[in-house]
Amino acid sequence: xxxxxxxxxxxxxxxxxxxxxxxxxxxxxxxxxxxxxxxxxxxxxxxxxxxxxxxxxxxxxxxxxxxxxxxxxxxxxxxxxxxxxxxxxxxxxxxxxxxxxxxxxxxxxxxxxxxxxxxxxxxxxxxxxxxxxxxxxxxxxxxxxxxxxxxxxxxxxxxxxxxxxxxxxxxxxxxxxxxxxxxxxxxxxxxxxxxxxxxxxxxxxxxxxxxxxxxxxxxxxxxxxxxxxxxxxxxxxxxxxxxxxxxxxxxxxxxxxxxxxxxxxxxxxxxxxxxxxxxxxxxxxxxxxxxxxxxxx
Length: 297
Known about the structure:
It comes from Pseudonocardia endophytica. Keywords: Transferase. This is Arylamine N-acetyltransferase/N-hydroxyarylamine O-acetyltransferase. Belongs to the arylamine N-acetyltransferase family. The protein is an alpha+beta fold and about 300 residues long. The chain contains nine helices and twelve strands. It has helices at about 20-30, 40-55, 60-65, 70-80, 90-100, 210-225, 230, 270-280, 290-295, and strands at about 55-60, 105-115, 125-135, 140, 155, 170-175, 185-195, 195-205, 235-240, 240-245, 250-255, 260-265. The chain is globular, with a radius of gyration of 19 Å.
């Protein structure tokens, strides 16, 4: 009897259906959103701000050699009930399922991360997930998963306008295609005002991505030997007036409109304490983390 199976049988679960009512209720409680929720702009602001300031960004699974579970059950178990965070595919996968459950119309995007890249650098791989949300007030970008520079509010899809968020101003720029080939193709660039300079975060096209696209990128960022997240401990959490970022053994706190503080942590236990106490991540169930933290010193 042949062991060959159809290709579909080898793929992960690609269902991206909305959260069920009990899971939505648990999610809203996790992010501190109370009262009625409706598919309107005010609710979108409440959900994006609540999500980004309540659920930390972290890539401990990739750092310890595990591929994150992007199913509804996996996302709610980890990010909602498990006092953990996640990376973009988890954050925005959960956000999309929640928004869809509320009644929003969403589209998934696959973006190219440009943070830290020169403007003239070649295109990067599409390894970031973001969302488009259609509203009567216009289309908005919602992104709860861009780590230390995540926008804590939705952004209107319009060219060049400086847009306030609870933290830094952001803007979206409309320009020619980043990868030439189709006449009239357009690339959008997401930027944040850091100090007195606009810094590019990522670029995207208005082309829908399927759940299987995210599953592939999710696996790629764990498996590739030069993956940033496989090689480095990265975690972040914004607050009402600050951003707290951890990169390996360096803890940085960036105050809105004020100075930044940077601390070089001096032991594996100090790094774990920062993850737990400063970033709100329950590390008790992360097998293999002790060995990775010891390797930082």
